[in-house]
Design goal:
By secondary structure, this protein is an alpha/beta fold. 45% of the residues lie in helices and 14% in strands.
Length: 1058
């Protein structure tokens, strides 16, 4: 391929000089940039090649430089126009610049005169911008001659010896410069690049002796050519480009420019190598001088640091001396006397008072340095750190500590550095999984999670199933993230510069092989310059936050059903820290987002406080009592502040007002608890997946009491299982007659009362034998404790063994039976059996029916619907004034409508039910008009909801017909105007409440049949008779009994009279 004889001249701005085998980016003026752009457009198929000629300045050796570098234009960046008017503005056009990337190929000599100023004027005046073209020639660097009068050789020096000496001196000067730059460089990538170039220099051959003249001359030429090529590369890289050896605009910069221009004009290889050696030697001298000056300045400024380190050493010596005195005084646990006791009191408090604030400040600085470089948190921390140092720098270490601003900054830095920010080690991919992920990667993770949930909670099978699904998703997401980290770690472990080593394996290849080595060396040099794409900060921002972005679980259920303990079990299964945030009564938005730093005694919010306590960004956070959060007021709405926290798509950039730096909460597992859903806002509820925790059955309560509550109370009161034993009858009596709730908290308190009662007996028994020698405690297990009739079973006898005739036996019975509960817990609140107080109060009465309700805390129960006839008398006109329905009991609008609907249906079907003698008569009007008063007891509790229609209808029918509903029958469901029974909610809670109230028969809508089969436990279904009805006629027949209510017409139940 022939070389071009004419090239377009590209003038380089001062003080840039492009040497062969170098690559630079140059800022060009608008005129030159447009001319170069036209050249780009003319060369569509290939990148244009120009002659990069240094600009002529006053300090140049020649007014018109005759040498340049043939360069390939790799890239040309044209800045965009900011407005349409800017294109017409000539001043703005002149102020625009172009960025061109050039790669030096070889030296060129200008064979025609080139005037830089005249060429620029021509480009300005011409309508079409273009670059000036000149004839060029390529000087040869292979003209090897036996120099007779060179400065570094004698006239009789052979050519081989000259080449060898020149290469040796060049290698020595270059290695000194590279070693100095590698030691002073702060970037590991630059150090590695310098060491690689030094290794390439070591491989450069410097001997050619022992060969024939012709062979020796060829070998010297090859070595000299390679050495001269490396000289161009090194001088172009370290002199005036990436490494600045002098301040801009001074004489040192002009000297560097002159040296590079002289090197460019030297085409002969041997003089060029000697000139490069001189330049590198001079550069090494400058670098050494600069280092000595910098060290001298550092020594003069490090007086305070020296004092600090000396004081630290002094404290360490004093500490060692104190430990030596303590070990030499005797036993380490012995109390010294005399003056030593005074030194013993000089312990941790005195150590803290001796330690200055410098220790804490150095700890803060160490944490800031450990943060990921380029991240927003590190920038914010460094900014506040510099503010603090400016306050404390003027008057010493404690100058700014007493100021208000210094205290605020110091407190912010302590909070800021205490948070688990991403560090340098965390951002580096590794092949070894972290401790938090190692437990998830085990094959027995789900099995251990199931075992953990079963050991902490009894029952709740459906809730545990949902939690296992949630934990399985967590495991799969973590495994996928771990696989991605391993892939990145394997890519990061690939050796850098492997292509360079492969290109240098064959050093004897000439021609094209030298060009390949040149390109590879440029790759190594470019790696030393940090690019925008490889900055750590940009890397972190572009890296997507990984983690489980699944639903936020919301546990809803009555108090004492294990909602909080479920969150703790999840944390133990995941091996993560657990933090609980109580939101009950929180009325200020700042409690969630934190207070701004402008306020006195401001601080972060509850979320950041929990993050600091956990110490890890992937902890389990339980937001307890989220339904009791305060409503919005002039302090803000804390519920609205939680919307960002509980949104998986937004909490990766949570902004606390105090920290004022985006915090990533995407790795936090949020779990919420509530007793009801009514007080939770719709947007907040939309972000959560509701998991209902119903109340426990009696059988579940007995198992929980035996497995969890009793051992817990025994340990809390200092007793063991041998000291207190409850029979099954006693435990069941406590659960049924003393506690009737959805949870187990009252049951636990009752068991605690029993354990404390036996603890008093055991303590009195120990007091009885205190001071009597020869006594012994013996547990008498001779009788079978499984039979409740043996009241002396497991008795503890205390006797005098030395004098049996004088023994004073004191017995202690660990067994607690049902007959002893009244003496321990008092009179039972509920009774059962034939003498049941509930049965007496709940006898068969006219107009009274029991309905099923769900109370405010999510507990189910029964509620009587009471109706009574209120006579009104006759008016003066002889017409009745009755027919009114009065509803009381703190009823809402919906339940009032249910009562009116039930009365309307009864009036419409009064003739069919046998209440009236005519289908057109009103049962409440007539000769004796009446009113009806319907009341729901417990007036202090508000009641509402569409589920009392069936119970109210049955109560009105019972009142007007005289038939009674048995007291062990309860019902729920809503009716329509045509008599259909519609489904209702809360079936499981209502059924459990009926079971606790010892209801034997429950009437439910037919559409709720699936809820009973799916949600109610088998033991409850076996203990209660369920009747599913489709209309009011079936409900009346199930409530009163078959044949009790006679119907005059079978068509009465099909449709009411319209």
């Amino acid at each position: 391929m022939s070389r071009p004889t004419k090239l377009a001249i590209l003038p380089l701005p001062y003080p840039i000089i492009l040497l062969p085998a170098s690559r630079i980016t140059v800022a060009l003026s608008a005129e030159v940039g447009e001319a170069l752009l036209a050249l780009f457009e003319a060369n569509d198929s290939s990148l244009p090649v120009v002659a990069a000629v240094p600009a002529a300045v006053d300090c140049a050796t020649s007014a018109n430089p005759q040498f340049g570098t043939a360069a390939r234009v790799l890239r040309l960046v044209r800045p965009p126009l900011r407005s349409s008017l800017e294109s017409a503005d000539s001043n703005s056009k002149q102020s625009r610049i172009y960025l061109a990337s050039l790669h030096g190929l070889t030296r060129v000599r200008l064979d025609e005169r080139y005037d830089h100023d005249r060429a620029m004027k021509t480009a300005l005046n011409s309508t079409t911008p273009r670059l000036v073209t000149r004839k060029i020639s390529y000087p040869s660097s292979l003209e090897l001659k036996d120099t007779k009068d060179t400065k570094d050789s004698t006239p009789s020096t052979p050519l081989q010896v000259q080449v060898r000496e020149a290469i040796i001196k060049f290698k020595a000067a270059a290695l000194r410069v590279l070693q100095h730059m590698a030691q002073t460089s702060q970037q590991q990538a630059r150090k590695d690049a310098f060491y690689k170039i030094a290794a390439m220099l070591e491989e450069l051959k410097d001997d050619a002796e022992g060969l024939e003249l012709e062979d020796g001359r060829n070998s010297a030429r090859d070595n000299l050519d390679r050495a001269a090529w490396m000289a161009d590369v090194l001088v172009g890289s370290v002199l005036g480009q990436g490494i600045r050896t002098s301040a801009p605009g001074n004489e040192g910069e002009s000297e560097d420019w002159t040296d590079k221009l002289t090197l460019l004009a030297t085409s002969n290889a041997l003089p060029r190598l000697q000139l490069a050696t001189m330049i590198l030697t001079k550069l090494h001298t400058k670098l050494e001088l600069t280092s000595r000056i910098a060290n001298a300045v550092d020594e003069s400024l490090s007086k305070q640091q020296k004092e600090f380190f000396l004081r630290q050493q002094l404290r360490a010596i004093e500490k060692e001396l104190k430990e030596l005195q303590q070990t030499s005084s005797g036993h380490p646990n012995s109390i010294p006397s005399g003056n030593v006791s005074g030194n013993a009191r000089h312990n941790d408090l005195d150590l803290d008072s001796n330690e200055s604030d410098d220790t804490e400040l150095m700890d803060i600085r160490r944490k800031l340095e450990a943060m990921e470089p380029g991240s927003e948190e590190r920038k914010a921390g460094v900014r506040e750190w510099r503010r603090l140092k400016r306050l404390t720098g003027a008057g010493g270490a404690g100058a700014g500590a007493g100021s208000v601003e210094g205290g605020v900054i110091r407190g912010w830095l302590e909070w800021f550095t205490a948070l688990p920010w991403p560090s340098v080690t965390q951002s580096t991919p590794t092949l070894t999984p972290s401790k938090s992920k190692s437990s998830l990667t085990t094959s027995a993770f789900l099995a251990s999670a199931r075992a953990q949930l079963d050991s902490d909670h009894y029952g709740l099978d459906k809730v545990k199933k949902r939690l296992i699904e949630y934990l399985a998703v967590v495991k799969l997401k973590e495994l996928a993230e771990l696989a991605e980290e391993r892939r990145l770690a394997l890519e990061a472990q690939k050796p850098e510069g492997s292509e360079v080593n492969e290109a240098l394996e064959d050093e004897d290849v000439a021609g094209g092989a030298a060009d390949e080595r040149e390109k590879e060396l440029q790759v190594v040099l470019r790696q030393t310059q940090p690019s925008v794409e490889n900055k750590p900060g940009r890397m972190r921002n572009s890296k997507k936050s990984k983690g489980v972005k699944g639903p936020i679980l919301l546990f809803v259920g009555p108090p004492g059903t294990g909602k909080t303990s479920l969150g703790q079990s999840i944390a133990r299964a995941l091996d993560r820290p657990f933090q609980r945030i109580s939101l009950g009564g929180v009325r200020d938005e700042a409690e969630i987002r934190g207070h701004r730093r402008t306020y006195v005694a401001s601080g972060p919010g509850l979320i950041v406080q929990a993050l600091r306590k956990a110490g890890r960004p992937d902890f389990v956070c339980l937001l307890d009592e989220i339904d009791k959060i305060g409503a919005g007021n002039f302090h803000g709405d804390p519920g609205a502040a939680l919307l960002e926290v509980l949104d998986p798509e937004q909490n990766c950039n949570f902004n606390d007002h105090y920290i004022n730096v985006p915090i990533d909460l995407s790795q936090v597992l949020f779990i919420c608890t509530a007793n009801t859903l009514e007080t939770i806002s719709a947007p907040l509820l939309d972000r959560c997946e509701v998991v209902v925790l119903p109340g426990y059955t009696y059988d579940e309560k007995l198992h929980i009491a035996r497995r969890f509550l009793l051992p817990k109370q025994l340990a809390a009161n200092g007793l063991t299982e041998d000291h207190v034993k409850l029979t099954e009858e006693a435990l069941k009596a406590v659960a049924t007659r003393y506690t009737r709730e959805a949870g187990v908290r009252t049951l636990e308190r009752s068991i605690g009362s029993i354990v404390r009662f036996k603890a008093v007996e055991w303590a009195e028994c120990l007091d009885a034998i205190d001071g009597h020698e020869g006594t012994k405690i013996v547990f008498d297990d001779s009788s079978d404790s499984s039979h409740p009739s043996h009241t002396s079973s497991a008795e503890l006898s205390i006797a005098n063994l030395d004098h049996p005739s004088k023994s004073n036996t004191t017995s202690y019975k660990p067994l607690v039976e049902e007959s002893e509960l009244e003496a321990i817990l008092g009179i039972a609140r509920w009774e059962d059996g034939e003498e049941s107080l509930v049965e007496r109060n709940r006898g068969s009465r006219r107009g009274v029916v029991y309905g099923l309700v769900v109370m405010g805390q999510g507990e189910g129960g029964i509620l009587p619907v009471e109706t009574i006839v209120v006579p009104t008398g006759n008016s003066t006109s002889g017409k009745g004034t009755g027919g009114r329905l009065r509803l009381t009991g703190s009823l809402g609008d919906v339940i009032k409508e249910s009562g009116e609907l039930a009365l309307t249906w009864v009036k419409t079907h009064a003739y069919d039910l046998g209440i009236t003698t005519s289908p057109f008569h009103d049962p409440l009007q007539g000769p004796n008009p009446i009113d009806i008063h319907l009341h729901l007891p417990a007036g202090a509790q508000k009641k509402d909801g569409p589920s009392a229609g069936v119970a109210m209808t049955c109560a009105l029918v019972s009142l007007l017909t005289g038939a009674c509903v048995p007291p062990d029958v309860a019902m729920t469901g809503e009716i329509t105007l045509r008599g259909r029974v519609t489904p209702v909610g809360g079936i499981k809670e209502k059924v459990l409440g009926a079971h606790r109230a010892q209801i034997r028969k429950v009437i439910l809508p037919y559409a709720n049949r699936k809820d009973v089969e799916h949600d109610v436990a088998p033991e409850i279904r076996n203990a209660i008779e369920f009747v599913f009805v489709r209309d009011v006629q079936e409900a009346l027949e199930a409530a009163f009994g078959k044949g009790v209510i006679g119907w005059r017409s079978q068509l009465g139940m099909l449709e009411s009279r319209m």
